[in-house]
């Protein structure tokens, strides 16, 4: 990897995400995001397939790169999963996806992102870039050794795939902990480029809610320690306290697998986009240097 991961302003490049409803019904928000940006399309189980496909098509038509969430447990059958990918690729021009386990009241036969990858349908239906999830602080109800085995199984599957792979993480607030985790997964043999999840600017009270929901326990303690008074709890969170130490790491260790940031817009899409514009983290280049293909993994 090279310093092409940085924007011309010397900042880590960024992606962000929107709900299908936001993309379809609030298209004016896209005016704050530069074309070619990777925009993840969430799937929280509250949007129809038609809306998800429409959102992805809107992003494609506006010259963004849509990255729809593919939540394994939400598909009632393998056929339903195949139908979703087929519609996204053929109707919306999707080439990139995020494969996750997801949540569902009644899980279908596909219970993990590994199960999605093992179907071979991403390759068969023309997906070129596959993001998989990373958990710097672990994951609720999943043992560390299971997380490790799943990540390395994804490496094995990447060797069999024509797609490029990358790791995009849950958000957090402890850059020192993230740096330790980056070293840890490198020790496992992880070679996927890593896009570190960052919470966008938001009130501390908002972040507390999302951190509790996501099970980000260590970061939740970090926020609570900082928010010791009503005044500080209502004040805004500055994401640069998370991002700048990561940029320092990249400057000191240019061969790190740290490739990009992924910003969760908890304080609003517009507010997040304006912050990224101000700091120079929007990238106008091709994103291929932030993912890894099968030949690179094999080296």
TrEMBL record:
Superkingdom: Bacteria
Gene3D superfamilies for the chain: 3.20.20.220
Keywords: Oxidoreductase
Entry keyword Oxidoreductase: yes
A GO molecular function held by the record: oxidoreductase activity
Protein name listed in UniProt: Methylenetetrahydrofolate reductase (NADPH)
Taxonomic lineage: Bacteria, Pseudomonadati, Pseudomonadota, Alphaproteobacteria, Hyphomicrobiales
